[in-house]
Design brief:
single chain
């Protein structure tokens, strides 16, 4: 079992009500839901704004890439990858 750290914090009433709605009638516990949301934020979500990342349906991404040649895809990768990778690692 994972080690847990107890924390107490206040949330907005509207957020609390939405959490209650999500877990009502489901085996999902509030603790699990909040842990999942916080983990997603600390491991990934906090970078979204800094790097202008977006969530995209894989089918749409596949369609996008299907309209590019290999050379075009390589050029896009080079233009965006060179500086961004270093920037991402250093953040």
């Amino acid at each position: 079992m994972a080690r847990l750290t107890r924390r107490t914090f206040a949330i907005e009433r509207e957020v609390g009500e939405k959490i209650d709605d999500l877990v009502d009638g489901h085996p999902l516990e509030v603790n699990l839901l909040v842990n999942k949301a916080l983990r997603r934020y600390v491991e990934w979500g906090r970078f979204v704004d800094s790097f202008k990342l977006v969530t995209i349906d894989p089918r749409l991404l596949k369609l996008f890439w299907s309209h590019l040649t290999m050379d075009e895809a390589r050029e896009i990768g080079l233009q965006n990858g060179n500086g961004r990778v270093v920037e991402f690692i250093l953040t």
